[in-house]
């Protein structure tokens, strides 16, 4: 052992220490935040599918279900998104009162502090349902239960802080927000210039050691109405009042917004969304040290605290909203395609419509599968950092595609705004989800694989820690142990990837999963190919891989697909292998396999070491990228899921906010059911080449009752395809004085002629 370490490992160790890039404290803290989970199994190249299938399904308790069917439904009935958006520019006072009274802001706060003590899955389900009724309300509810004072206090607060603040947050006496983003520092939080100087000052008529804060934050959701601000800043101790170190690092503290020097209340208008969002400033705001979350001992630990909390929050709120958006798009677009006719036939019969409709359906299936699987991990106490990044990135990005497809199929119906437009505001809101909680470009190019390669790899983090050990001998011993395990792992992965690639996964490990068994074999094949290529890229590029963002993004795409496809398989298994849903699963698999094979081909085409690239191509992709995506048959069957009332349609779009009113969504649902129920009647009329139902009754083609049913269906369709129009003075104050737009322009013309 000592011979291997001293004669073989030591030169490698010395070389690796020399080329290992320096890692900043913020980078290390981000890497160490959260947990690894199924992503680590995928990185082994040989995932244990039995482990995945044994994960308990996320489920609601009776109390959580009662809340969803009670207060959540009541809230949805109170919401009028058009008035919220166009008239009030805010949630109305009765809604604010209701969400406080019913403790929507305290869903994640334990019951001992007056909260509801709900599971992450319940939090997700609540956000999901409200999202299908009002984006503004959903964001308002999700933020206090995600990254913010409540989450941070629960994880890191002192007992005194928890006892003081959590009950107030739970019952709505305090409205929280969290200030992280600065004009100078968006994704690069380490560049923030917000400061907290440790000094002595007067607080509540007593002299204490505290922090004098100066900051400028923006894009802060709930900021304009918050009474308690969680603030991230850099702490400094120039007079060494708490220790020898002067620069303490990023710190988080609680700031009551009524303190002198706090400037808050101005609003942003993000993509025309009217949830409360705005900037705030602090000028020489003094707080005692016990307002630092976790107390004095947590000075300088803020970044790690934030990354740990974000590892959970990113996996719930925006993925829930995105899954809701995709399901909502599937239900509404399927119904609209079924009832809308062009050239005398339903547009759902056009293959050009079927293709994007199938994409919407499969996206809804996959996003909700991934949401449930991620919530199952969170329910078990796991905080999967890499998976949360995957979820935020791909949920919001795929929702964007689904909503774009829905807009295309709806055409003018979704373009013309008004109370009857049930899609337009969701379409406008998409860029917000893409941008917040880590911009998607950054997440894809730097985080998913950059963090995943280190955290989820079986040995890489151990090797890096050994190389960074200040005790060289101890580091060498640890490196020797990890490195040779890594070598053995790589050799096994090489032969595994080679065998599975050349046999197209025919003998790869897979559970007995009925019709889905071949999909498991392919994922096992791709997992091995991914693990081998990742190892070779890390070996040949080392720290330079960090700067090869396009390569990193492609590896990240493969890891993401492996996770999302695993989730889809898990869902199909958990729901009892429903044959009616199999087309959606097939679409997901074919599309995911195509992405994986294309990304592998792109990696091999761009890997700088061409000898290694050629060798890898021979091993893992000898026949090139061969998967073409879903077949026309699969597309047709997948689209059909939402074109008829069925159990499959309900499984795909459960718990949407159905409100029995005269809104656009309710009109669409009624028309859809009427059209489907009268389909046989309409077919008899078409066969007789008759359009007038009264003529059809007279000629005995249909009965009077059938004719009246058909008339009711046609009337319902007419109401759906109508779009809103407005009096000119309702849209512009220019016309309010004259009251007649024609008179206004006539007078304008006369004035111009006279001049």
TrEMBL record:
Catalytic activity, reaction form: a medium-chain 2,3-saturated fatty acyl-CoA + oxidized [electron-transfer flavoprotein] + H(+) = a medium-chain (2E)-enoyl-CoA + reduced [electron-transfer flavoprotein]; a long-chain 2,3-saturated fatty acyl-CoA + oxidized [electron-transfer flavoprotein] + H(+) = a long-chain (2E)-enoyl-CoA + reduced [electron-transfer flavoprotein]
Organism from which the protein derives: Bradyrhizobium ottawaense
Residues in Acyl-CoA oxidase/dehydrogenase middle domain copies: 177-267
Keyword Oxidoreductase: yes
Cofactor(s), by name: FAD
Pathway assigned to this chain's UniProt record: Lipid metabolism; fatty acid beta-oxidation
Domain Acyl-CoA dehydrogenase/oxidase N-terminal: 61-172
Protein name (database record): Acyl-coenzyme A dehydrogenase
Molecular function as annotated in GO: oxidoreductase activity
SUPFAM superfamilies with a match to the protein in the record: Acyl-CoA dehydrogenase C-terminal domain-like, Acyl-CoA dehydrogenase NM domain-like
């Amino acid at each position: 052992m000592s011979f291997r370490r001293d004669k073989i490992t030591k030169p490698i160790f010395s070389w690796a220490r020399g080329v290992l890039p320096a890692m900043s404290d913020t980078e290390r803290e981000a890497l160490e935040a959260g947990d690894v989970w199924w992503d680590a199994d995928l990185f082994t190249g040989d995932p244990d599918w039995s482990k995945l299938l044994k994960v308990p399904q996320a489920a609601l308790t009776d109390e959580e279900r009662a809340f969803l069917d009670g207060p959540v439904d009541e809230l949805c009935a109170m919401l009028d998104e058009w008035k919220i958006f166009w008239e009030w520019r805010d949630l109305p006072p009765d809604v604010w009162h209701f969400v406080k009274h019913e403790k929507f802001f305290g869903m994640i706060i334990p019951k001992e502090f007056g909260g509801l003590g709900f599971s992450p899955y319940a939090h997700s389900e609540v956000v999901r349902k409200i999202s299908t009724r009002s984006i503004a309300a959903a964001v308002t509810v999700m933020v206090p239960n995600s990254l913010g004072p409540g989450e941070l206090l629960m994880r890191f607060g002192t007992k005194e802080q928890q006892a003081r603040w959590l009950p107030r947050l739970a019952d709505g006496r305090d409205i929280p927000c969290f200030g992280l983003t600065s004009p100078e520092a968006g994704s690069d939080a380490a560049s923030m210039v917000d400061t907290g100087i440790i000094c002595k000052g007067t607080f509540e008529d007593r002299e204490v050691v505290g922090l004098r804060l100066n900051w400028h934050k923006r894009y802060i959701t709930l900021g304009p109405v918050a009474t308690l601000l969680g603030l991230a800043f850099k702490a400094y101790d120039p007079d060494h009042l708490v220790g020898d170190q002067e620069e303490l690092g990023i710190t988080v503290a609680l700031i009551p917004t009524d303190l002198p020097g706090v400037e808050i209340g101005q609003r942003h208008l993000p993509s025309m969304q009217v949830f409360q969002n705005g900037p705030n400033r602090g000028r020489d705001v003094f707080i005692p040290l016990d307002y630092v979350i976790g107390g004095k001992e947590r000075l300088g630990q803020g970044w790690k605290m934030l990354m740990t909390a974000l590892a959970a929050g990113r996996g719930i709120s925006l993925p829930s909203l995105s899954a809701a958006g995709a399901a909502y798009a599937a239900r509404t677009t399927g119904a609209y395609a079924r009832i809308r006719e062009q050239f005398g036939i339903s547009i759902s019969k056009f293959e050009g419509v079927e293709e994007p409709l199938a994409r919407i359906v499969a996206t809804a299936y996959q996003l909700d599968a991934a949401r449930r699987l991620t919530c199952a991990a969170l329910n078990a106490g796991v905080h999967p950092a890499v998976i949360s990044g995957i979820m935020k990135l791909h949920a919001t990005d795929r929702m964007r595609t689904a909503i774009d497809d829905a807009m295309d199929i709806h055409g003018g119906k979704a373009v013309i705004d008004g109370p009857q437009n049930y899609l337009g505001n969701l379409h406008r809101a998409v860029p917000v989800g893409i941008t917040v909680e880590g911009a998607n470009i950054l997440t894809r190019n730097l985080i998913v694989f950059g963090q995943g390669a280190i955290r989820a790899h079986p040995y890489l983090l151990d090797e890096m820690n050994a190389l960074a050990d200040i005790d060289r001998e101890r580091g060498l011993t640890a490196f020797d142990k990890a490195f040779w395990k890594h070598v053995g792992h790589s050799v096994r992965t090489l032969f595994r990837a080679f065998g599975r690639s050349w046999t197209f996964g025919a003998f790869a490990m897979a559970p007995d999963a009925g019709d889905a068994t071949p999909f498991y074999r392919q994922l096992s094949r791709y997992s091995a190919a991914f693990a081998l290529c990742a190892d070779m890229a890390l070996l040949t590029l080392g720290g330079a891989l960090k700067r090869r963002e396009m390569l990193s993004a492609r590896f990240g795409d493969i890891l993401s697909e492996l996770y999302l496809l695993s989730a889809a398989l898990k869902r199909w298994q958990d729901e009892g292998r429903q044959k009616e849903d199999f087309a959606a699963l097939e679409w997901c698999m074919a599309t995911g396999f195509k992405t994986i094979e294309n990304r592998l081909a792109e990696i091999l085409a761009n890997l700088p070491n061409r000898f290694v690239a050629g060798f890898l191509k021979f091993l893992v992709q000898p026949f090139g990228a061969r998967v073409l995506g879903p077949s026309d048959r699969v597309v047709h069957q997948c689209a059909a899921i939402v074109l008829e009332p069925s159990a499959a349609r309900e499984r795909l779009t459960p718990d949407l906010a159905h409100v029995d009113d005269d809104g656009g969504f309710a009109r669409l649902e009624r028309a859809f059911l009427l059209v489907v129920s009268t389909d046989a009647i309409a077919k008899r009329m078409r066969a007789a080449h008759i359009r007038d139902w009264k003529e059809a009754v007279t000629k005995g083609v249909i009965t009077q009752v059938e004719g009246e049913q058909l008339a009711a269906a046609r009337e319902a369709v007419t109401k759906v395809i109508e779009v809103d129009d407005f009096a000119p003075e309702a849209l512009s104050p220019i016309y309010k004085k004259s009251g007649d737009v024609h008179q206004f322009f006539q007078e304008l013309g006369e004035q111009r002629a006279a001049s």
